[in-house]
Amino acid sequence: MGWIKDKFKALTTPRKEFVYADMLNGYTPVFSKFGQDIYASDVVKQAVSCVVGEMQKLKPKHVIDLGNSDETVARNKEIQKILDYPNELMTKSDFLEKITWNLMLDCNSFIIPCYRTWKDKKGNEQRHYAALYPVNPSQVDFLEDSSGEMFVKFFFANGYNATVKYSEVIHIRRNFSLNEYMGGNANGQSDNEAILETLQLNKDLQKGLSGALKSSFAINGIVKVNGLLDREKQEKEAREFEEKLKKAESGVLVLDSKSEFTRLPRDTKLIDPDTLKFIDEKILRNYGVPIEIIKGKYTKEDYESFYQRTIEPLVSKYSEAFTRALFTKREKECGNYIKFYPEDLIFMTTDQKLEMVRLLGDCGSMYENEKRVAFGMPPLAELEGQRKASLNYIDAEKATEYQMKGVKANAGDKKE
Question: Residues 319, 393: one domain?
C-alpha cells in the first residue's frame, strides 16, 4: 500500500489534539468489522451481483441546477474527468462495482478524493481533483478537534492509518438507522443475524437433500444366500455378485440355486420445490431482488419495480454523497452537484421509445444523434449538434401575443 500512502499524505491532517466525537447514546464512535460471512451463499452472491450490475451502468455527471427544475452539464471538465476516470487502477465501471460491493458487504462505502487547493482572483477556494480511491478500512474512528470539526481516522489491515476531514470523505450508507454515523446496526456493521438463520436453514435443506440422494443410490438390492455363512464368506459372496453384475453386459444375470437377489425399489423423497423457492425468495427479499431478475426472465414491469424499489434509492444516495464531498459550500450554493443517470430510456419498449422521440423531437429537445442512439444506431458526424423542431409548436410565453396578432388580423379583414 506504499504507493497510496503518498496519495493520502496531502489529505492527512497534521498531528493535533482530538477527542472522540459525541454520540447521543453514550457509546464511543469506534467501528470495526466482524461477523460471519454471509456472502459464501450462492443465493446472496447472485442477489448482490444483480444490484452491482445495475449500479455499474450508471453515468455520473457534473451538472448545474439552473433553477425551475432546469439543469445543464457543467462546462468545467475537471470533476467530470475524475468521474469518468476515477484513478489509475480502475475504469468507471470498476469503480462503481467496487464501491457498491463495499456498500452491500458492510452497509458503508468510503471513498477518499485526492486533490490540491488554491485561491482564485476573488479569494474563493478552488480544488483540482486528481483521483477518487475506494478504501476498505478494518476500523474507523470518528473524532473532533477543539473547534468541533469532525474527522475520521481510517485503520487498514497492514497497520497504516490516516486521519481525514469527514467533510472531504465520500461516505455512502445503507440501512442508516440505529447508528448516528454509520449504516447497518447499532454497532455500525451489517446486521446479518436474521438472514444467517435463513441461510442456515437453506444449507440444512440442501445437505439433507444431498444425503437423501446418496443413500437412495447406495443400496440397490439384497442378495440372499441360502445357508449360514460367517462374515468373511458373506463379503466374498458379495464381491462375487458384484463381479457378475459388472460382467453382465447383456443385462442378464445368472445365479446358482443357493443365491436369491431381491431388488429394492427407489422411492427418493425430495424437498418440495415450493419450499426451496420460498427459502430462496426469503433470502432475496433482504436485498430487494426478485427471483425473476436472478433468472433473467423478467418483464418490463418486473424490472421497473426492481429499479424503483432497490436501485433508485441507491442512485439518490450516490448523487447526494458525491455532491456533499466534492464541492465547496459556495459551489453547492451556485447549483453544482453530481447526478448519476441510469441507462438511456431504461424501461421503454420500441413503441414507447418511438413516442418519446416523437414528443421530444417535435419540440426540439433532442439532438438528431440522440434519436439514432435511442434505437441502437451509431451517431453520424454530419448530424453532430443538430436539433430540429416542428413548426406546430410556439413559445408558451409568446402564445398570447401570437393569438392577439391573429385576432387583430381577422378584425382588419372584416373592416375591409
Answer: no
pLDDT tens-place string over residues 280-338? 677 777 788 888 888 888 888 888 889 889 999 999 999 999 999 998 888 888 888 99
Our count of domains for the chain comes to 3
Nearest by Cα to 81 from 61, 53, 99: 61
Residues composing the chain = 416
Q: Amino acid letter at 10?
A: A
**378: containing domain:** 348-415
10 and 73 co-located in one domain: yes
What is the Cα–Cα distance from 53 to 57, expressed in whole angstroms?
7
Angle subtended at Cα 380 by Cα 378 and Cα 383, rounded to the nearest 5 degrees = 135
Residue 272 belongs to a domain: no
User: What are the strands, taking DSSP E only, across 174-291?
Assistant: 221-225, 259-263
CA 24 to chain centre: 31
**Is 374:351 a contact under the CB 8 Å cutoff?**
no
pLDDT 10s digits, 347-362 = 677 787 888 888 888 8
Buried b (16+ CB within 10 A) or exposed e, 235-272: eebeeebeeeeeeeeeeeeeeeeeeeeeeeeeeeeeee
212 domain residue, yes or no: no
- Same domain for 25 and 101: yes
